Amino acid sequence: MTLNLADLPADVQEQVATTRRVVSDLHAELPRWELVVWTAGNVSQRIRVADRIGEDLFVIKPSGVSYDDLGPEKMVVCTLDGKKILDGTPDSLQPSSDTAAHAYVYTHMDTIGGVVHTHSTYATAWASRGEEVPCVLTMMADEFGGPIPIGPFALIGDDSIGRGIVETLKDSRSRAVLMQNHGPFTIGSDGRDAVKAAVMVEEVARTVHIARQLGDVIPIPQEKIDSLFDRYQNVYGQPKK
Amino acid sequence: MTLNLADLPADVQEQVATTRRVVSDLHAELPRWELVVWTAGNVSQRIRVADRIGEDLFVIKPSGVSYDDLGPEKMVVCTLDGKKILDGTPDSLQPSSDTAAHAYVYTHMDTIGGVVHTHSTYATAWASRGEEVPCVLTMMADEFGGPIPIGPFALIGDDSIGRGIVETLKDSRSRAVLMQNHGPFTIGSDGRDAVKAAVMVEEVARTVHIARQLGDVIPIPQEKIDSLFDRYQNVYGQPKK
Amino acid sequence: MTLNLADLPADVQEQVATTRRVVSDLHAELPRWELVVWTAGNVSQRIRVADRIGEDLFVIKPSGVSYDDLGPEKMVVCTLDGKKILDGTPDSLQPSSDTAAHAYVYTHMDTIGGVVHTHSTYATAWASRGEEVPCVLTMMADEFGGPIPIGPFALIGDDSIGRGIVETLKDSRSRAVLMQNHGPFTIGSDGRDAVKAAVMVEEVARTVHIARQLGDVIPIPQEKIDSLFDRYQNVYGQPKK
Amino acid sequence: MTLNLADLPADVQEQVATTRRVVSDLHAELPRWELVVWTAGNVSQRIRVADRIGEDLFVIKPSGVSYDDLGPEKMVVCTLDGKKILDGTPDSLQPSSDTAAHAYVYTHMDTIGGVVHTHSTYATAWASRGEEVPCVLTMMADEFGGPIPIGPFALIGDDSIGRGIVETLKDSRSRAVLMQNHGPFTIGSDGRDAVKAAVMVEEVARTVHIARQLGDVIPIPQEKIDSLFDRYQNVYGQPKK
């Protein structure tokens, strides 16, 4: 089935428009936190409309477009099989070359509402050694509840990247996986949460790298990690409304 | 006792308003000097009003709020037992999850008027090895009068972080402590002085780290450190008015 | 033959004016991506007008001028023998001291439309060890199709730098060469493509450096590199119009 | 003799005003190139007025003032014995605590018109190991004509820093010295030239540091260094008017 934006119910079109703005704004966070260069990296967010049109959608960055040139109208809307839906303009953009990986995550992880991919430097460095980042910082215990795991080497072009992400993260507290020789993918409850995980995974990858350069780091006992993770997930921040 | 902002004397309310502006502005220094990412880090400043209302107050960052969204009205006012005082609005924000540590410092160190906490990268790297930063730079002798000490591993949730800070710093010239596996806390005569210490501790942690990567650093003899510290504390800058 | 801008056909003058704007704008990318300090670095772009005036031209940065002070009118127009063409103003600027190297590339590589030179930190570090950057990242396979090669040590002042670039790159997939003890030169289909290669070569030099600091990196098998390079060159980005 | 600004001849007052603007503007380059944090670092420039008033003057940063708060009117005018000259305002600022070192350089090196001091990270790291930066980059041969030398450990408070700078640089091609455990001082024909040297010494200190982290660097033969230095000093940039 090929979906066309103009054929969707008005309230779904409204949700699409809102999500395009959100995802466009979130892309500005990637260069801001120095997670990407040139056109690399991408953010997506799920639109939960299965009850309205029979399937969810998601919004993602177009392929190879500069961060300077992004905007809500450039964001590509896709179905969960990774096909873009038409918006009535003849020159509508092609979605990110990583779209299939994002689609696979949404299809196989129901609770996930946002996915981010970057080649951020320190996280990618750990990935190219195939070495997980050990949990030796309280902020890492807070945010990820343990080490940052390594995913398999996988080529673009089929579902092997998406499968590698899902298989690595499905039984993990971590919202970040370092795909071997490639770079980090992060997941979250929505796009913003996945962007936060992308910022934090680079931060902890960098800090632990620097710590390790001059000697051994002190491990945090597992029960302390558990205690920090539990508290941060339930107490930190403002009360949810 | 639960304090309410509207019940305070007018001149104390004035001091609270001024301090909220100061502390809000000081928070902008943390991302500016790249000491924090996302919502991490916090600055507080004491309000010396014990002679007016029987106890001092302090102002601190709200928990989990982005640096982009801060402003004087978002700053939380607390008593020295770490409880926020009510400001009459139903949606007033919750204070930083590190509030108990700040409160402990103010309660146990009378001369301290400002406290800052970050996870700045190089300082946190030394902290995760549990290794003090040796005093091998004249700017470090100037500012800290010796090495930057390590504080104990301590979990959030009771007064163990505050106690670790106070016990490490109470007999030290250093205004910075690196809490093991966690990150730096700095203290000062006011919020700005503690922010300066936070900037400088990262700077010296970074420079000494880089120096050590390629070989041994040259120690500065203790009497030279003493001479530099004494001069800087008494001669540097403009005359106090 | 000494060319004078005023003597060129009107349509060629138009192409010159457009290219000066493009090259001036591209120079802003070098400080933006932190590839240069002070006045170092330069971008050039070929103007394909051999069918109109018997030879191609190219536009390049003036020598020793600050990036703050650049603009289209400051860009120098040269013939392919590296001589600037006169523009009728007595104070017209002298071209970059690297002009001969750019000219040599255009003369000996017909398909190349842009050249960039920087002293970007990590690429120059590999260059000063005379060590090629191994291909251990998928983004490096995508962009460069293999390792970043080292070019010979060559002094400025004759065609030895240009010759070193061309001999190293003519049979390579890489659009970047690290000239020993000197720094990277990159080539591309136009100025923008060469700037992209300059950004990416620093990014991969930096990431692989950091990866190698803590241990061995995992090589990517040659057939996977081939597959990634082929796909990226043909599928990534928006369809060419 | 105590000089008073109001008592100087009108043309000298004019030169003072111009130099204060120049030196104020040059200070903005230090944070821009990330050579300083907080209030650290300083630039000075000589005013050649010995033929008018019997001695030269120089302009320097006030002590302990934030870079945000600088401006021409904040710049302090000094005689070559390092005493500030009065400007008629009761609250005129005290000059940098490094003023004596700047004054010593101007007094003992007639051709020097500008001096800069920073604690830039990589240069200070080499300084704290007491290890000169070897000349393994063509840009370093261009700019400094050889290695960056180390100066003695010297305390602030008498002329020992100034003496260390002059004794290290007087027979060197280098315009930069790394004072042991302290940081770089650079000199130049004017303030801008000394600022350029401060930017370049950090750049080469950083690049050679990074190169050395992963192995041995390739030395550049002395006659090639001589050739590069000679050419750069005489050919690079636009013709002097």
Automatic annotation (TrEMBL), chains A, B, C, D:
Q: GO cellular-component terms in the record? A: cytosol
Enzyme Commission code(s) on record: 5.1.3.4
InterPro entries recorded: Aldolase_class_II_sugar_metab, Aldolase_II/adducin_N, Aldolase_II/adducin_N_sf
The record's catalysed reaction(s) read: L-ribulose 5-phosphate = D-xylulose 5-phosphate
Q: Which UniProt keywords apply?
A: Metal-binding, Zinc
- Molecular function GO terms recorded: aldehyde-lyase activity; L-ribulose-phosphate 4-epimerase activity; metal ion binding
Q: Does the keyword Metal-binding apply?
A: yes
The protein's matches in SUPFAM superfamilies, at most eight in alphabetical order, are given as: AraD/HMP-PK domain-like
Cofactor requirement: Zn(2+)
Q: Specify the enzyme's EC class, one word.
A: isomerase
Where does the record place the Class II aldolase/adducin N-terminal domain?
21-209
Say which domain of life the source belongs to: Bacteria
Query: Would you kindly state one Gene Ontology biological process term found in this protein's UniProt entry?
Result: pentose catabolic process
Q: Which PANTHER family match?
A: FUCULOSE PHOSPHATE ALDOLASE, L-RIBULOSE-5-PHOSPHATE 4-EPIMERASE SGBE
| Similarity annotation | Belongs to the aldolase class II family. AraD/FucA subfamily.
Q: Which NCBIfam families match?
A: PRK06557.1
Q: Tell me what this protein is called.
A: L-ribulose-5-phosphate 4-epimerase
Its ancestry begins with: Bacteria, Bacillati, Actinomycetota, Actinomycetes, Propionibacteriales
